[in-house]
Design goal:
Elements: H1 9-33, H2 36-56, H3 59-67, H4 75-87, E1 91-96, H5 119-122, E2 127-133, E3 136-146, E4 152-161, H6 165-202, H7 207-223, E5 227-231, E6 237-240, H8 242-248, H9 259-262, H10 267-272, E7 281-285, E8 288-296, E9 302-308, H11 310-348, H12 352-376, H13 380-395, E10 399-402, H14 415-432, E11 435-443, E12 446-453, H15 485-495, E13 499-504, E14 510-516, H16 522-527
Parallel strand pairs: 10-11
Antiparallel strand pairs: 1-4, 2-3, 3-4, 5-6, 5-9, 7-8, 8-9, 11-12, 12-14, 13-14
Helix pairs in contact: 1-6, 11-12, 11-13, 12-13, 13-14, 14-15
Length: 532
């Protein structure tokens, strides 16, 4: 009759654990009996050595040995017998350098030479052995007896009664078998309890079912469009789905490595490792704006989910730009209304020549301002941004100037990145200052942007912190979070291989400088070289 292996997990585990427990108990019993003889020998000898060392350390023993004569009623015999009774030793023999006994359980032996060779102990070495003496078989130890100067003045020999090892082994076998049977029973009961708990945990599933569930989990994790990252208690990656690899720019080989080994230091790594607490934390990693949530697991690790908010953030910034454009149009509308009222008043007063001069002056001034920007910044997106920001600054009662050193040809590779950088810097300056100066300059294929203001400036100890995601002194708007503008500026600069820094402005305020290498094309530079 063929015996079928059970299909359910708990039944397989139960049978396996019972078999393993039986084998382990039998193996341990055999391994315990085999070296028991040696262990009993060593244990008895070490006990004798410990008693001998304790006896030799008695402070008055050396003095009594060197200042009295050996006798059954002497102080050496009394001290040795006291220690023997306290420790349960078979005998404690104290001898001088001649090998003459000063103490012994059999008092007639006091004053006679010892029956075994004491030369090893009198030479300064400790020994342990199993031997037969005048009191029968014993485990004995001998140690030298030294005075305060370290000179050997005698030796101490201690013996412990020791029965036949074979007899003791035979006597222990029934007890060992009893304990082995109890251990086996306990192991079987424990295996049954574990199997029942495993049955509840696995809902009676078979290993094939569990394997199928794991395959489905892997397929689900790698198909969802939300990044999932699992970390163990030591901060090492143990799961990384495809979206997480894309957002963090990691490879499957990153599994098993610590986050500090695969991600650059910064806020992103701090958020993922749990150094920053909170829900829906904003961070910038590899040039992407991410929302992170971290959920600890029972084993000390954590599962981190990441959502890509880069496009949403760009839309939010486009919305800000639209609001800025609306503000600029509103300011121009207000300004045009005032000018029309002025023009109407001049016409009603009959001052037609003054009205003509006023219209020409306004038209020429507006045209001259726009043309000045367009001549220095030929890129239409950047020049339009500067014109719009100038109108917004005027509406807020601030002044935005273009530096005389500004000269940027129409050779920008990706003007959208420069618009993001310049727009963020100008917006930050408009929030705190009334005078802003913008400088855009080409140095070969490198673009240098500099925005200075007369605001309160940035303290030296905060000049790195302000480029950190989430750091801001302003209230967040409803549609997006604060603390990302300068972080995006630095990330864009680093992506181009450049830098973003802040310093102090002469006379008070701050100067933000961004260097963006390889943002201008060599071919177009050659074409406009004569203009520069």
């Amino acid at each position: 009759m063929r015996i079928h292996w059970p299909r359910r997990v708990f039944a397989q585990v139960l049978l396996t654990q019972v078999a393993i427990t039986t084998g382990v108990v039998m193996l341990v019993t055999g391994l315990f009996l085999a070296p028991l003889s040696h262990q009993l020998d060593d244990q008895a000898m070490r006990q004798a050595l410990s008693i001998a060392q304790t006896t030799a350390a008695e402070p008055g023993l050396v003095h009594n040995l060197t200042s009295t004569e050996p006798s059954p009623g002497g102080p050496v015999q009394a001290e040795a017998e006291r220690i023997r009774r306290a420790t349960g030793a078979l005998y404690i023999v104290v001898m001088d350098t001649r090998g003459v006994r000063w103490s012994h359980t059999d008092t007639p032996q006091i004053g006679k030479h010892v029956s075994t060779d004491p030369s090893t102990a009198l030479a300064g070495r400790e020994i342990m052995q199993i031997d037969d003496g005048t009191l029968g078989r014993s485990a004995r130890a001998k140690v030298p007896l030294r005075d305060a100067h370290g000179t050997i003045v005698g030796a101490v020999s201690v013996g412990i009664a020791y029965d036949s090892v074979r007899e003791r082994l035979l006597g222990t076998i029934p007890g060992l078998l009893l304990y082995a049977g109890a251990a086996l029973a306990a192991g079987v009961l424990a295996a049954l309890a574990v199997s029942r708990r495993l049955q509840r945990s696995t809902h009676g599933l078979a290993f094939a079912d569990i394997s199928a569930l794991l395959d489905e989990r892997e397929a689900m994790l790698h198909s969802i469009r939300e990044a999932v990252l699992a970390l163990d208690a030591r901060g090492r990656i143990r799961l990384l789905n495809d979206e997480a690899q894309r957002l963090l720019e990691l490879t499957p080989d990153a599994v098993g490595h610590a986050l500090s080994e695969v991600l650059p230091p910064g806020r992103a790594a701090e958020v993922l490792t749990g150094q920053v607490d909170g829900v829906d934390l904003l961070t910038v990693c590899r040039g992407r704006v991410l929302i992170a949530n971290r959920m600890p697991t029972g084993d000390g690790g954590a599962v981190v989910t990441l959502r890509d908010r880069t496009e949403l953030e760009l839309l939010g910034r486009e919305l800000d730009s639209t609001h800025g454009l609306l503000d600029a149009l509103r300011a121009q509308d207000h300004e045009h209304a005032n000018r029309l009222h002025t023009l109407l008043g001049l016409l009603e007063l009959g001052r037609h020549e003054a009205a003509v001069e006023f219209v020409a002056e306004v038209a020429n001034g507006r045209r001259a301002s726009a043309e000045q920007v367009a001549e220095r910044v030929n890129d239409p997106l950047l020049s339009a941004l500067l014109v719009g920001k100038s109108a917004i600054a005027a509406e807020r009662g601030a002044s935005l100037h273009i530096s005389p050193n500004t000269m940027l040809p129409d050779v920008v590779v990706d003007p959208r990145d420069l618009v993001t950088v310049l727009g963020n810097l100008i917006d930050n300056a408009l929030d705190v200052a009334s005078l802003i100066e913008v400088e855009l300059r080409a140095e070969g294929t490198t673009t240098v942007l500099r925005v200075s203001d007369n605001g309160p400036g940035v303290a030296p100890d905060l000049r790195e912190q302000i480029f950190t995601e989430g750091w801001s002194t302003k209230v967040s708007p409803a549609h997006r979070g604060r603390g990302l503008g300068l972080a995006l500026v630095r990330r864009l600069a680093e992506r181009y291989g450049g830098v973003a820094r802040v310093g102090a402005r002469a006379g008070g305020g701050a100067v933000f400088t961004v260097v963006l290498p390889e943002t201008l094309t060599v071919r177009q530079l050659t074409e406009v070289g004569g203009v520069q």
